[in-house]
Amino acid sequence: MKKLILLFITGFAIACTVHAQGADSLATQTPAFNVDSATQHYLDMLTPAQKAKSDAYFEGGYWLLLWGTLYSLLVAGIFLLTGLSKWMKGLAARPGRKFVEPLIYIPLYILISWVLSFPLSVYQDFYREHQYGLSNMTFSAWLTDGLKGLAIGLVFGSIIGAILYSAIRAAGKTWWLWASGISIVFVGFIVFITPVFLAPIFNKYEPLAPGELKNQILSMARANEIPADNVYQFNASKQSDRISANVSGFGSTTRISLNDNLLKRCTPAEIRSVMGHEMGHYVMNHVYKGLFEMSVLLVIMFALANWLFNLIIARYPNLGITSIGDVAGLPLLAAIFTVMSFFFTPVTNTMTRTQEAEADMFGLNAAREPDGEAHVDIMLSEYRKLDPGKWEEIIFYDHPSGRNRVHMAMQWKAEHLHDCK
């Protein structure tokens, strides 16, 4: 969901071209400016070795998507085929107190699933990240963050699970509609509280030091009617060197944040381009649009889950699952959603990628830093394949490819050559 609600701004007047960090300016103040050549100039900033490393890392993620799905099915199989789920249900059963049953079963399920999935997590999120030089964490620090995430999952998973199972049992055949509505309300709640209550569990947030950069960011926010009177920075460098920022939350929890890597590694022009993009998400209401799109998708997925769940338990009565309201069927329901999520990947990626492209264009018109935007896109290619094929991008990319983002910035630049003072 990792992955659902981000915001950006960019663009720049050609005569005021800002040098990308360590790169020559492309601000050729002439009508002969060539978009394709300017784009290629930026693409060539990556050496063949850097490009090969980035491609290998990102393409490996395609396989991890498959192996992660299969591994999740294996975990579900352990619960269902070994009798573990039935044993957990028996442990949780309380005669006449059906609401309590999920509150005992679900924490056990989350905890055991976490333990069973731990080997894959160590490889994917720790070893592989270090293998490609993308993590700054010791194993103990990585494990600490993992345990924090587990604790949050136990609390919220147990609560939402108990509510969902109560709704399932009460609603009968229309349970999937109620489950969809409850789920989207819960997602909205998490989006609302994350900036203030959840994100600080993993990183330290503090106000950005007063200065010209902070004034410029707040000026952009005021110009775009973003209700924020402060800018926060957080210490993402303890996890990695990746640059990032966001305008997160909504209403009273709206918060503009950027990480310390962005401050250390980028020029003011590049930072403005990033913050512009992030503000674009807010101004274009991507949080609400994303929630609406997710609502539609959840209704479809819950409806399919209802059909598949009943089909499977009818076909395999030896699983011992009586109905969709049987908490012992949670591993089966999780397996069904895992498979559906795998096949819906191109859909969810396209939904997000479309919003990211919209935020890019908003940013180009707000920050007016096309060269800053282009150089940031190249920096992001440290872990994103820069130049994929058409269908590769459609299926696997939740952001536009680096090539397309740089080309958009250079196209904007070409159309604003005479905006210079």
In short:
With 421 residues, the protein is mainly α. The chain contains 15 helices and 4 strands.
Which labels suit this protein?
single chain; 421 residues; mainly alpha; 4% strand; disordered N terminus
Explained architecture:
With 421 residues, the protein is mostly helical. It contains 15 helices and four strands. Helix 4 packs antiparallel against helix 5 (139-171), helix 6 crosses helix 10 and helix 9 crosses helix 12. The longest helix has 34 residues, at 48-81. 33% of the residues are buried.
Blueprint (SSEs and pairs):
Blueprint: H1 35-43, H2 48-81, H3 84-92, H4 100-131, H5 139-171, H6 175-202, E1 205-207, H7 212-223, E2 231-234, E3 245-248, E4 255-259, H8 260-265, H9 268-283, H10 286-315, H11 330-343, H12 345-366, H13 370-380, H14 390-396, H15 402-414
Parallel strand pairs: 2-4
Antiparallel strand pairs: 1-2, 3-4
Helix pairs in contact: 1-15, 2-4, 2-11, 3-4, 4-5, 5-6, 6-10, 7-9, 9-12, 9-13, 10-11, 12-15, 13-15
Q: Gap between N and C termini, in Å?
A: 43 Å
The SSE string, one letter per element, is HHHHHHEHEEEHHHHHHHH
Query: Which oligomeric form is depicted?
Result: single chain
In percent, how much strand structure appears in the residues? under 5%
Number of separate strands = 4
Number of helices: 15
**Helix fraction by DSSP (H/I, runs of at least 4):** 55-70%
Strand order of the largest sheet: 1-2-4-3
The 3D shape can be described as: elongated
Low-confidence stretches: 1-30
Biggest sheet features: 4 strands, mixed
Average pLDDT over all residues: 91
Radius of gyration, Cα only, in angstroms? 24 Å
Label the structural class: mainly alpha
